[in-house]
Amino acid sequence: MIGIVNYKAGNSHSVMNACKKIGVDCRYVGGEDDFADVSAVILPGVGSAKATLDSLREIGVLPRLEELVLKDGVPFLGICVGLQILFEHSEEDDVDCLGWIEGSVVKFDETRLRVPQIGWNRLTWEKSDPLFAGLGGGGFFYFVNSYYAKPARGEDILAVSDYGGRFCAMIRRGNIYASQCHIEKSGEVGLTVLKNFCEGAGK
Amino acid sequence: MLANRLIACFDVINGKVTKASQFRDNIDIEDAVTAAKRVYDMQIDELIFYDVTASAEKRPIDLQLVEAVGREVFVPYTVGGGIRNLTDMYNVLKSGAEKISVDSMAVRNPEIIAQGAKEFGSQCIVLSTQVKRVGRSAKIPSGYEIAIDGARVFTGMDALEWARRGAGLGAGEIVVNSIDNDGTHHGYDLEITALIADELRIPVVASGGAGRMEHLYDVFTKTQASAGIISSMLYSPRLERNFTVREIKEYLHGRGVPVRPYVAPRAT
Predict the structure, then answer these.
(1) Is A176 inside a domain boundary?
(2) Does residue A203 sit within a domain?
């Protein structure tokens, strides 16, 4: 059973629609005691890191999530701001984040670029991974972001894209995956990534 | 590098996708959910859904339909029409849309842009505008005036000034709908599209007039537009022939315009 974290600031509905489309067993999870049968967790995200953290704290889901992901090694996939909050700090609202992954989240250069980045951008894989099964060397994914992550450890970077320079588009460390692009809104290519995750990538 | 986006925009009346010409004479195309699935399967980059009569009929948007369309579409999905306040916005987002489009209501109450951007983020708020060429004057320095309510009411507002203000209030994208070119198939209004796209730092979506693939080449090479609406080309019965998303993308790619490539479906 895939657990989709459902909180006020997220777009869990779109992720649920995508999971149903690819035919995986999934349900919303929210409260702390909600995870008994959950074999993998997806954390959807839109909007700001601070609003997301506030909203997750409000439903009290973080302690249990940290236990599952960091201690028990349950596969985890964060999407968009669900990637950003895994780092130590975000420039957006100057907020301290969860610190699961070393590094920080910074803003695109507004003097040179249209910010937010809105649209389809090409991803290239930094390494081969079960997440990319069936997808060749890369593909186009949908982004909506003003901020991007700068992982301190290069080996955490799983895929990169280019917006006025290369930036980190996906990370993986062990059972923890996260994607800056909205894989739930990236057409069939995105659904393939989601399916690969739900079918056991990260185990 | 970002790909230029091709967007299907559904004008929905009573659950049916319709096609207008210069904002009038709508003809029914097909059921909205079927149409959504069809354009998704064609690999459209994005979908906009306008409940065009919600505002005039002073009723909320049809959320069940919004939700049904959302179940078929796994690309970004914007919903507009009849959005009056934050509650309406919240309901639309919870029904599966990523973005909210505001148009006439934002002219009446510009603060709704700022409120929406603050609550949901700028990336959620699309300012849609209806622009008409009226000639330059002291009051309308850009030569384009903003209309509302299905191009029936003229506001005396300058289009460029309104776009600037909308971006300042927090809109994350702006759609420039040419009333003159809508449904004519003669091409986008490049002049106002370029004016607004040069001025603003947020993505600009060109709308109204695309009838041939060259029109997309023109708008992406002669203006800084990030996206073009191609509804008529996909399904208007008024057009001599319709196009697939695939052939438009292959045409643009062949001429060096960055697009998300069509991916042949895998045999299953």
Answers:
(1) yes
(2) no
3-state secondary structure chain A: CEEEECCCCCCHHHHHHHHHHCCCCEEEECCCCCCCCCCEEEECCCCCHHHHHHHHHHCCCHHHHHHHHHHCCCCEEEECHHHHCCCCEECHHHEECCCCCCEEEEECCCCCCCCCEEEEEEEEECCCCHHHCCCCCEEEEEEEECEEEEECCHHHEEEEEECCCEEEEEEEECCEEEECCCHHHCHHHHHHHHHHHHCCCCC
Per-residue pLDDT band at A115 (split at 50, 70, 90)? confident
Which structural domain, as residue segments, surrounds residue A55? 2-198
| Secondary-structure class of domain B5-254 per CATH | alpha beta
Mean pLDDT of B141-150: 95
Mean of pLDDT values over B69-89 = 93
Domain residue spans of chain B: 5-254
Q: How far is CA A68 from the centre of its chain?
A: 16
- Find residues 173-202 of chain A whose CB sits inside 8 Å of chain B: 182, 184-191
Q: How far is B25 from chain A (nearest CA, A)?
A: 32
pLDDT at residue A37 above 80? yes
Residues of A within 8 A of B123 (CB-CB) are: 46-47, 116, 118, 144-146
Enter the pTM of the model.
0.94
Inter-chain residue contact B201 with A188, CB threshold 8 Å: no
pLDDT band, very low/low/confident/very high, at B215 (cuts 50, 70, 90) = very high
User: Which entry of A26, A80, A168, A198 is annotated as an active-site residue?
Assistant: A80
Whether pLDDT at A165 is above 80? yes
Domains in chain A: how many in total? 1
Q: Is the pLDDT of residue A22 over 60?
A: yes
B78 or B183, higher pLDDT: B78
Q: Is residue A180 part of a domain?
A: yes
Residue of B nearest to A188 (CA): B74
- What is the per-residue pLDDT for B267? 58
CATH of the domain at A106: 3.40.50.880
Residue A50 contacts B, CB cutoff 8 Å: no
Chain A 66-105, residues with CB within 8 Å of chain B CB atoms: none
Q: Quick check: is A188 in a domain?
A: yes
A182 classed as catalytic: yes
Determine the residue among B2, B6, B124, B257 to mutate to test chain A binding: the one whose Cβ has the most chain A Cβ atoms within 10 Å: B2
Interface test with B, best of A14, A54, A123 (most B CBs within 10 A): A14
